[in-house]
Write a structure and sequence with these properties.
Elements (H helix, E strand, L loop, with lengths): L1 E7 L4 H10 L6 E7 L8 E3 L2 E3 L4 E10 L4 H12 L8 E6 L17
Antiparallel strand pairs: 1-5, 1-6, 2-5, 3-4
This protein binds adenosine-5'-triphosphate and magnesium ion.
Length: about 110
Amino acid sequence: MKIVMAVIKPFKLEEVRDALTSIGVHGLTVTEVKGYGRQKGHTEIYRGAEYAVSFLPKIKIEVAVPSDMVDKVIDAISAAARTGQIGDGKIFVSSIEKAVRIRTGETDIDAL
Ligand SMILES: Nc1ncnc2c1ncn2[C@@H]1O[C@H](COP(=O)(O)OP(=O)(O)OP(=O)(O)O)[C@@H](O)[C@H]1O
Ligand SMILES: [Mg+2]
């Protein structure tokens, strides 16, 4: 099992959710976050020097899936979240050791 964590532009959330639903993702977690990437939010000139680190609002999506679905999930998120402009976001993938569905006690892939 893998957990795919994506940071996207907030207005892309519905499109990304629809794309994930259409490939069979059953659940996901969404968090409002703030962050910056290479442009550091934006840059501005102050007394001749570049300053400014500002946090921009983003949405973090976490979706746990069987390992063999990871590529499909990455493709779905990338296609739905891409505008081609800076700040489109990033996707990080990590391994999950264990998953439990609390109501039924099912574990691992059956719990997803
Ligand atoms: N190395 C990182 N670690 C953790 N979060 C990151 C990292 N890079 C980007 N993020 C998160 O992703 C959001 C979007 O990043 P962003 O798409 O601007 O990355 P970028 O490298 O600057 O790419 P681009 O040049 O396309 O803007 C950031 O606001 C931040 O929340
Ligand atoms: Mg950026």
